[in-house]
Design a protein that fits this description.
The complex is a heterodimer of chains A (about 500) and B (about 140). With about 500 residues, chain A is mainly α. Chain A is built from 19 helices and two strands. Classes of the chains: A mainly alpha (about 500), B mainly alpha (about 140). The interface between A and B is medium-sized, with 16 and 20 residues.
């Protein structure tokens, strides 16, 4: 009986736990509750993915109101995959968060921290699972508002400014999305995504629909920080508490990419000129620029957290590039990179969290000799860095392989060359850290102290998965491919 | 505000009707315009008026911050809890039909409980925001 209600429970369980955290007040208890709930969410998303792979899409009618009248939760391979990514990262970051949060956030705010964390998890899972366009906006706001709070809890006073900057830009992005959804409702009279997809082809000449497409594209690209709308991201990631950076870097922008995928290929499933122009004429060049420019900026960054943040902007470029090819291989590469990048960037930010715990900061100058003082942490960071570069036997290689395959398939030779060049840029910025950490002597009197196990294990779980999925790709690639085929079959109709 | 006798007397006169009107909007929301959000805002505004005239300390003696904090969460829990209760009764999440023998009665019970949750949270959040800003210089 309970298995039929799993789509609702996926969102409801963390939603109920968040106010319970506020009532419990005691830091340790709220952490234990949050941990339990995040593991329960993980279990639910694993079961959901299994169900979807076996039996096809699931539909859940909220309040017993049948879709398209009521709110529908619709789970297909694509969002089951993204749900899994979000809940895995949540379940791995929370054990890590205990020590990190004790160190970085005042005791009195711990329960509020975990409540916001759970609300953010709720929002991200909700955006992903819902089959209702307006419901998507509501959950997007839940996740955004709670992530502003989480970022502002950072130790550095600049965290407040970063959170405020993100609040302004994030609100503009969400407003654009809701304007777009409003126009869709105006043109079709429905908010259910499947219903929208069925009705839109008959009103495709309408200017309202074209404008809604533009609004949603811009809103979603702001949320996922595509160049040149990425200005909120580096500061937000750099000054947020370590656990928050790892969680948001691995989930929030990924869910943004999911929104774009969902709207481009499910809601606006029919072909119209503006869509091809947007994808190939606008998003493709912008994502190539994102990859090249952000990687270059990362090379000159002195703060390693900011460096990784710029690298995230570049990696988001890869994902958008994949979907701008509009081919099964390209979209597979994009979806696959959502998964792989969540693992490696999450793992790397966790490793930085360990370093912050011991050294207090991640300025490049202070990392001298840290490879000898914290060998396990630093080695995890380096393995994650290999993933960013795309060295074989890491998951980064697999996604780059598919991306280049997609570029070659679509005769975008120049882009394939640019991808290879960007790996070189990634090599440079990762090497800068490696050089300082391993080849320079630690400062006088520095103690060699490895991070506690409660932080090392989560870091290594993500980094280990990064290596595992670099070798054993049947799950990650298989599901991404099924999802891409599903999207494009509904979508482009005649695609290969 | 000690010397503003008119304000103090008028506020004392107005606050009970404001709170009563909030309850009317809350419980009549089932049949007419209104509902939990509006009622919560009006109820919260009653407290805020009291705090403006008689001071934040006095208002916080009636509504201690710890209690308000619990109320903020309680409202959400009532809303979400109704959904869970529907699951236990064998319906879908927030399917009020199963809350009574007769589906129409079930819908009434469900919506009143859910709106009550909304009202409590909104009123408590209004107060929390006001107290947070009003208590800043201290």
């Amino acid at each position: 009986m309970i298995s039929a209600h799993l789509p609702a429970l996926q969102v409801v369980v963390p939603l109920i736990a968040a106010p319970l955290c506020v009532i419990l007040r005691r830091g340790t208890w709220t952490w234990a509750l949050a941990l339990l709930v995040s593991w329960a969410s993980l279990a639910i998303s694993v079961v959901l993915l299994g169900q979807v792979l076996d039996d096809g899409p699931l539909s859940y009618a909220f309040g017993g109101w049948e879709p398209p009248w009521g709110i529908e939760y619709r789970v297909d391979v694509l969002n089951a995959y993204v749900l899994l990514i979000v809940s895995v990262v949540g379940a791995v970051v929370l054990p890590f968060a205990r020590r990190s949060v004790l160190e970085e956030i005042p005791e009195s705010q711990h329960s509020l921290f975990y409540a916001s964390f759970l609300l953010c998890l709720t929002g991200l899972l909700g955006v992903t699972i819902t089959g209702d366009a307006f419901n998507l906006f509501v959950f997007l706001e839940i996740s955004s508002l709670s992530s502003y709070v989480l970022i502002s809890l950072g130790r550095d006073r600049r965290a407040l400014h970063a959170a405020f900057q993100y609040l302004i830009l994030g609100t503009i992005g969400a407003t654009f999305i809701v304007i777009g959804i409003g126009m869709l409702y105006m043109a079709t009279g429905t908010l259910n995504m499947a219903d929208l997809a069925a009705r839109l082809p008959f009103v495709d000449e309408s200017r309202t629909v074209l404008v809604s497409f533009a609004f949603i594209t811009v809103g979603a690209t702001l949320k996922l920080a595509l160049f040149p709308l990425h200005f909120w991201l580096p500061n937000a990631y750099a000054y947020a508490p370590s656990a928050v950076t790892a969680f948001l870097a691995a989930t929030a922008t990924k869910v943004g990419v999911y929104i774009l995928l969902r709207f481009f290929f499910t809601v606006y499933s029919f072909d119209f000129p503006l869509k091809a122009i947007t994808l190939q004429g606008m998003l493709m060049p912008l994502s190539v620029i994102a990859v090249l420019v952000a990687s270059t900026v990362a090379i000159f960054e002195r703060n390693v957290k900011r460096m990784l943040a710029y690298s995230s902007v570049a990696q988001i470029g890869y994902m958008i590039l994949g979907l701008s090819f509009m081919s099964v291989t390209g979209v597979t590469a994009g979806i696959l990179h959502i998964f792989n990048h969540a693992l490696m960037k999450g793992g790397m930010f966790l490793a930085l969290g360990c370093i912050v715990l011991r050294l207090g900061s991640v300025e490049l100058d202070q990392l001298r000799g840290v490879g000898r003082r914290m060998p396990l942490t630093m080695f995890a960071f380096v393995l994650g860095g290999f993933g960013l570069i795309g060295i074989p036997l890491t998951s980064g290689f697999v996604s780059k392989w598919y991306l280049i395959l997609g570029a070659v398939e679509g005769d975008h030779w120049l882009i394939a060359v640019a991808m290879l060049f960007s790996s070189l840029l990634a090599l440079i910025y990762v090497w800068r850290v490696v050089e300082v950490a391993y080849l320079q002597a630690p400062p006088e009197g520095a103690k060699a102290e490895e991070a506690p196990l409660s932080m090392l294990i989560p870091t290594w779980v993500l980094i280990g998965a990064n290596v595992y999925f670099g070798i054993e790709t049947s799950l990650s690639v298989g599901v991404a491919q099924t999802a891409a085929e599903l999207l494009l079959d509904v979508g482009l109709g005649t695609s290969p | 505000m000690k010397r503003h006798l008119v304000l103090r007397v008028i506020a004392k006169l107005l606050i009970p009707p404001i709170l009563l009107f909030a309850l009317y909007v809350q419980f009549h929301g089932d049949f007419g315009p209104g509902g939990g959000f509006q009622a919560g805002v009006i109820f919260g505004a009653g407290f805020i008026l009291y705090a403006l005239i008689y001071g934040v300390e006095n208002a916080q003696r009636v509504a201690p911050p710890d209690l308000v904090r619990v109320l903020v969460s309680l409202g959400v829990l009532i809303f979400a809890g109704v959904g869970v209760w529907d699951l236990v009764l064998g319906g879908n999440y927030l399917d009020y039909n199963v809350m009574a023998e007769d589906p129409v009665t079930g819908q009434h019970i469900g919506i009143i409980l859910v709106e009550l949750g909304v009202g409590i949270t909104v009123a408590a959040v209004m107060m929390t925001i006001f107290f947070a800003f009003a208590g800043r210089e201290r």
